[in-house]
């Protein structure tokens, strides 16, 4: 009997890749101020910067886009979209937005503000930025096992329940704007959160009268992990698992650019009518009328179909297995990465990969740039460039981990592309002692990693 898990799709349209030489890439990287975000996409061979909005849409999605109703108000495309979201989440009120961070901006503007706190398993960059922009503070409550990249545990994305309750008591429930569980835990290595953990966190929040929300960008991948790893869920469908998961929450935000296979879009789903009214009022000012929310009718149609397609367990099996495939290749070579591999990406442990580069010289960026130099692969640093803060004396307060995320776009690359990626990582690992760090020459006050300009640290300066 065949054991190979094949792609549950066939290719109908192709797009050429552009090859560059190493010398060309050296010039490109310098022109981009050594920031992968500043590299033109045409100069990238394999683009693993993000899995957000980079998926290949299906023939059904493209066909649905032709059905898009572009009416300003009351579009029938909205009602198809609304029905698809309600079917999965069971939430009462659905608000479309142009992407996930727009949902966050609306929600946090209303619920946040100075003196407020948002508690989470781990907040991702744009989520934290929108919280801080409101004047509030985000607090990550990692479990102990999540702090150790090489530790093996089935649900390393969980929130620390003891720390959650202690923080609520310490800060005062009235000052906690909400608790947000990110599924899967993106900053924490794409690790899943267990149903038991979500249920318990929801119970604690209800006890203290605190809003409990799900950041649902990769909900289907998380639900599949629950089906595979958590007792009592093996016989349940992903849809049934999702229904239970969302039932514990007061609402959710989602970027449809992830698990809905869409190139743009997102939504807010809520049960509270008063909070919904406030969100819709702000939506009209910032995004558009409540039945389009910054999206074209064709995009609403694509999302509705994508939300149906993501529930296909053959696809989810293939998706998770693809990540494991890369991890197995790296494990053979002794390359450090977060274990077990996540649902949408492989996260290299840059601190262990490049022990000679200190946090204030950004080892994750050094590794990310080396992957581009060696093989034209674009990845993203998730470490002290993305999440580092400054102490009062101006010194860097480093991030808990120094990581490089290789996020795999959905339905885009083949096994040979992934084999190539693994080979380049292995080649860089063999030359790791030659790599040095970087220093910042320009940074923005928020989300600095998107537009920061950097320069290489001279070897003499690092050794001195």
UniProtKB/TrEMBL annotation:
<feature type="domain" description="Aromatic amino acid beta-eliminating lyase/threonine aldolase">
    <location>
        <begin position="47"/>
        <end position="423"/>
    </location>
</feature>
<dbReference type="InterPro" id="IPR018176">
    <property type="entry name" value="Tryptophanase_CS"/>
</dbReference>
<dbReference type="GO" id="GO:0016830">
    <property type="term" value="F:carbon-carbon lyase activity"/>
</dbReference>
<dbReference type="InterPro" id="IPR015424">
    <property type="entry name" value="PyrdxlP-dep_Trfase"/>
</dbReference>
<keyword id="KW-0456">Lyase</keyword>
<comment type="similarity">
    <text>Belongs to the beta-eliminating lyase family.</text>
</comment>
<dbReference type="GO" id="GO:0009072">
    <property type="term" value="P:aromatic amino acid metabolic process"/>
</dbReference>
<dbReference type="Pfam" id="PF01212">
    <property type="entry name" value="Beta_elim_lyase"/>
</dbReference>
<dbReference type="InterPro" id="IPR011166">
    <property type="entry name" value="Beta-eliminating_lyase"/>
</dbReference>
<dbReference type="InterPro" id="IPR001597">
    <property type="entry name" value="ArAA_b-elim_lyase/Thr_aldolase"/>
</dbReference>
<dbReference type="InterPro" id="IPR015421">
    <property type="entry name" value="PyrdxlP-dep_Trfase_major"/>
</dbReference>
<protein>
    <submittedName>
        <fullName>Tryptophanase</fullName>
    </submittedName>
</protein>
<dbReference type="InterPro" id="IPR015422">
    <property type="entry name" value="PyrdxlP-dep_Trfase_small"/>
</dbReference>
<feature type="modified residue" description="N6-(pyridoxal phosphate)lysine">
    <location>
        <position position="258"/>
    </location>
</feature>
<keyword id="KW-0663">Pyridoxal phosphate</keyword>
């Amino acid at each position: 009997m065949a054991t190979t898990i094949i792609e549950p799709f066939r290719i109908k349209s192709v797009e050429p890749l552009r090859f560059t030489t190493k010398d060309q890439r050296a010039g490109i990287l310098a022109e981009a101020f050594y920031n992968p975000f500043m590299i033109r996409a045409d100069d990238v061979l394999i683009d693993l910067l993000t899995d957000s909005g980079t998926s290949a849409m299906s023939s059904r999605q493209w066909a649905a886009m032709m059905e898009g109703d572009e009416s300003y108000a009351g579009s029938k495309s909205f009602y198809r979209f609304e029905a698809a979201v309600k079917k999965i989440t069971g939430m009462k009120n659905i608000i479309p937005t142009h992407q996930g961070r727009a949902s966050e901006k609306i929600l946090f503007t209303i619920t946040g503000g100075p003196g407020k706190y948002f508690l989470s398993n781990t907040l991702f960059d744009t989520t934290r930025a929108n919280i801080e922009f409101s004047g509030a503070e985000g607090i990550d409550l990692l479990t102990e096992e999540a702090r150790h990249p090489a530790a093996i545990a089935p649900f390393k994305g969980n929130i620390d329940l003891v720390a959650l309750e202690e923080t609520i008591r310490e800060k005062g429930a009235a000052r906690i704007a909400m608790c947000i569980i990110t599924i899967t835990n993106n900053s924490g290595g794409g690790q899943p959160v267990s149903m038991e953990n979500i249920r318990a966190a929801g119970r604690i929040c209800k006890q203290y009268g605190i809003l409990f929300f799900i950041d649902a960008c990769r909900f289907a991948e998380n639900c599949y992990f629950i089906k595979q790893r958590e007792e009592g869920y093996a016989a349940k469908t992903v849809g049934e698992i999702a229904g239970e998961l969302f039932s514990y929450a007061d609402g959710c935000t989602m970027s449809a650019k992830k698990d809905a296979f869409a190139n743009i879009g997102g939504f807010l789903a809520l049960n509270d009518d008063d909070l919904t009214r406030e969100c819709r009022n702000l939506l009209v000012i910032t995004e558009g009328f409540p039945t389009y929310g910054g999206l074209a009718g064709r995009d609403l149609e694509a999302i509705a179909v994508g939300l149906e397609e993501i529930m296909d367990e053959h696809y989810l099996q293939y998706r998770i297995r693809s990540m494991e495939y890369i991890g197995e290749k790296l494990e053979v070579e002794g390359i450090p990465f977060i274990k077990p591999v996540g649902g949408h990406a492989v996260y290299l442990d840059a601190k262990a990969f490049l022990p000679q580069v200190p946090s204030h010289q950004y080892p994750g960026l050094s590794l990310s740039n080396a992957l581009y130099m060696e093989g034209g692969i674009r990845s993203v640093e998730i470490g002290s460039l993305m999440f580092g803060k400054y102490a009062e004396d101006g010194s860097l307060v480093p991030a808990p981990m120094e990581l490089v995320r290789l996020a795999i776009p959905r339905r885009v690359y083949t096994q040979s592309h992934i084999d190539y990626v693994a080979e380049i990582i292995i080649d860089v690992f063999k030359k790791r002692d030659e790599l040095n760090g970087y220093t910042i020459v320009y940074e923005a006050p928020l989300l600095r990693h998107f537009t920061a300009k950097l320069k290489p640290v001279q070897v003499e300066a690092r050794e001195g």
